[in-house]
């Protein structure tokens, strides 16, 4: 943020100001504002969400001096804060700084390589390729700044969880293409922004709608699947396991004496414990394991293709890792333990209800035995009938 302020001060005193540049900047910011207002009623999912505002930031960086690239995200982030969803202010400030620095860097590089930016609108190949390269530079720098900040705030977060995945990479490519197209259109004639605005608004609404659907499946506190979404995913996995004849295990994990944490340190610290436990579960499980928050301090995990020995091993690893976890609270470090019940498909049940009941019974047993342990329900053998049972004996 300090670097962003220094950059603003430097370019504000050294940049030439022309009315044509101010008018183009105002037109692009107006398009960004219309885009925000058109999607305002949809709201914005809590947490990190994506938008298509780069369609307006990139043309500013490519067509105008760097000072405008530094100012554009400040105006649009302020509008998001006031009109869409208020959030923690430092997050807005950091986002504006990261986008501004990335945009200013791309702007400096492009204007150095292409002194006359008007050639971009003539359809000449080299300037367009350079614009694409600078747009890619903008995306890489912006992502790098956000990833470093996220990992610094939570060092336990895996790099692959904050770096690009397939969906975010595709979205960045879409933003890059949109930004370059809008820049070419704006360079030809600013009136063409009227034609560019509707498709960008439509794409923005579609993107936010998809994010809202994903948010409806997610527990807002931990980021895991909520109970309803987890049950749907678990039912799907159980049907698949039945069809293929593969094994499957279910774990119910409960934080021991969680009420004491809330009573001693407050619910905000209790929430941090839940978040840390959820993060540990995600880090220790496979990508295709189905993990969710079942309610309160209880978590559920479905382990496809896991037999009883592997399920015990995974449950024990989770218990050990969570036991080593330390959550800071004032001058103290909070540690918690967990108990878990394990159930195996075809041994303890054949459907989700039976497996949940068996795992819950095992969890209750673990609590009875002193907590901080893993239990598996006993399987009662059914005695085979004797050759001459009383009903079959001769009179």
Any descriptors?
about 60% helix, two-stranded antiparallel ribbon, five-stranded mixed beta sheet, 7 strands, about 400 residues, alpha+beta
Shape category:
elongated
Structural category? alpha+beta
Q: Give the count of helical stretches.
A: 14
Q: How are the strands ordered across the major sheet?
A: 2-3-1-6-7
N-to-C span: 95 Å
Return the string of H and E elements.
HHHHHHHHHHEHHEEHEEEHE
Give start-end ranges of low-pLDDT stretches.
Answer: 380-395
- Biggest β-sheet description: 5 strands, mixed
Please estimate the helix content. Answer: 55-70%
β-strand percent reads 5-15%
Number of beta-strand segments: 7
- Summed over residues and divided by their number, the pLDDT gives a mean of 85
Q: How much is the radius of gyration in Å?
A: 28 Å
Topology, please?
Elements: H1 2-14, H2 19-38, H3 54-63, H4 66-83, H5 89-113, H6 125-153, H7 159-162, H8 166-188, H9 193-216, H10 227-244, E1 248-255, H11 258-265, H12 267-284, E2 290-295, E3 298-304, H13 308-324, E4 327-329, E5 332-334, E6 338-344, H14 352-368, E7 374-375
Parallel strand pairs: 6-7
Antiparallel strand pairs: 1-3, 1-6, 2-3, 4-5
């Amino acid at each position: 943020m300090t670097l962003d302020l220094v950059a603003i001060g430097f370019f504000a005193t050294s940049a030439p100001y022309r009315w044509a540049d101010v008018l183009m900047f105002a037109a692009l910011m107006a398009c960004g504002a219309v885009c925000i207002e058109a999607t305002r009623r949809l709201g914005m999912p809590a947490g990190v969400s994506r938008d298509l505002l780069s369609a307006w930031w990139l043309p500013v960086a490519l067509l105008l001096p760097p000072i405008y690239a530094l100012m554009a995200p400040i105006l649009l982030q302020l509008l998001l804060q006031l009109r869409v969803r208020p959030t923690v202010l430092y997050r807005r400030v950091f986002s504006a700084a990261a986008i501004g620095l990335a945009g200013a860097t791309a702007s400096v590089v492009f204007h150095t390589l292409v002194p006359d930016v008007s050639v971009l609108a003539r359809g000449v190949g080299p300037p367009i390729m350079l614009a694409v390269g600078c747009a890619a530079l903008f995306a890489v720098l912006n992502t790098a700044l956000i990833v470093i900040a996220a990992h610094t705030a939570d060092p336990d977060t895996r790099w692959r969880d904050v770096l690009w995945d397939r969906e975010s990479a595709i979205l960045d490519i879409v933003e890059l293409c949109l930004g370059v197209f809008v820049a070419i259109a704006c360079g030809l004639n600013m009136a063409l922004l009227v034609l560019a605005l509707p498709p960008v608004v439509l794409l923005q609404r579609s993107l936010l709608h998809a994010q809202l659907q994903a948010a409806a499946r997610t527990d807002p506190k931990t980021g895991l699947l909520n109970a309803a979404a987890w049950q749907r995913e678990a039912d799907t996995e159980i049907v698949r396991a039945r069809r293929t004849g593969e094994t499957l295990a279910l774990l119910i994990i409960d934080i021991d004496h969680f009420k004491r944490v809330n009573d001693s340190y407050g619910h905000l610290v209790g929430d941090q414990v839940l978040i840390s436990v959820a993060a540990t579960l995600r880090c220790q499980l496979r990508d295709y394991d189905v993990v969710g928050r079942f309610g309160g301090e209880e978590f559920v995990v479905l382990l496809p293709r896991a037999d009883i020995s592997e399920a015990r091993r995974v449950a024990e690893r989770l218990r050990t890792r969570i036991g080593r976890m330390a959550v800071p609270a004032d001058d103290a470090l909070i540690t918690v333990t967990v108990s878990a019940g394990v159930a195996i498909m075809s041994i303890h049940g054949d459907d989700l209800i039976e497996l949940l009941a068996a795992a819950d019974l095992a969890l209750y047993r673990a609590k009875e035995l002193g907590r901080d342990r893993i239990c598996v329900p006993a399987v009662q053998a059914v005695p085979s009938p004797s050759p001459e049972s009383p009903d079959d004996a001769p009179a």
